[in-house]
Design goal:
252 residues; alpha+beta; eight-stranded mixed sheet; 27% helix
Length: 252
């Protein structure tokens, strides 16, 4: 079995902000991420280089989400809302998983430059489910990738992000949906993600600015206040994410 047989061309996944203005960049990210079939990856990476700081980086994430909401409103008559915002020092390896969210949602993850090496992989479990005539939820229930048999079953649908670089500020968008494929109604088709942290080091940081974004009716009550969005941009706090102990706060 090919352990990495999910293949997309580099230019289907990897984008640079240097070659695209924000509205055009948002459209490309939206097209690749918010897919309703399997003609797009369901994920992409935007490399922003090194010539910015963390606050500017987070503001760019917020601006990108706002532009994507404009596109979503024009195309589907719905908008995009934040469900969560956070900053974490994430040095724990994970198996392929969904972050907790509604049927249609995506992650916008902001990776800051780090000396902690890691690998990020995406698994197209929705395509796997479609080809097995199951729903995405049935894949997770019957072939849980947290266990070895389910993990191995997803390997042909798994791809390592080829342009991921610890040296740069990067935005990674990942379709986090679990809606079953439908020919009658266009719904987002999700993927799973996992990270392998090669050499965790408590003396260093691997900062991820994590946002979860959902499709919502226009005019629906916002789950995240504007003040919380501003705090996400301006804070210097990083929460140390450790699945075995209580989480701890410390400054950058």
């Amino acid at each position: 079995m090919n352990l990495n047989s999910l293949e997309w061309p580099m230019d289907s996944i990897c984008l640079s902000s240097e070659s695209l203005e924000l509205p055009a960049l948002a459209r490309e990210v939206y097209r690749r991420t918010c897919r309703t079939d399997f003609s797009e990856p369901g994920f992409c990476l935007v490399n922003l280089g090194t010539a910015l700081d963390s606050h500017t980086f987070r503001r760019m994430m917020v601006d990108l989400k706002r532009e994507m909401a404009v596109i979503h409103e024009a195309e589907w008559g719905r908008t995009l809302q934040y469900l969560s915002l956070g900053r974490f020092d994430q040095q724990t390896s994970t198996k392929p998983h969904l972050d907790s969210g509604p049927e249609e949602c995506f992650l916008m993850l902001g990776y800051e430059p780090s000396e902690v090496p890691s690998v990020l992989e995406i698994s197209d479990y929705s395509k796997c489910a479609f080809e097995m005539e199951l729903t995405p939820q049935e894949i997770l229930t019957k072939h849980n990738p947290m266990f070895q048999s389910g993990y191995q079953m997803l390997r042909p649908y798994t791809m390592r992000l080829p342009c991921f670089s610890e040296a740069d500020f990067q935005i990674v968008c990942i379709n986090n949906s679990f809606a079953p494929f439908s020919t009658e109604k266009s719904v987002w088709q999700g993927t799973l993600h996992n990270a392998t942290v090669i050499a965790p080091d408590e003396s260093k940081r691997r900062v991820i600015n994590s946002t979860l974004i959902a499709s919502a009716p226009i005019g629906a009550k916002e789950m995240i206040l504007k003040s919380e969005e501003d705090e996400f941009i301006e804070t210097t706090m990083v929460r140390r994410r450790d699945y075995n102990t209580l989480q701890k706060d410390d400054d950058e």
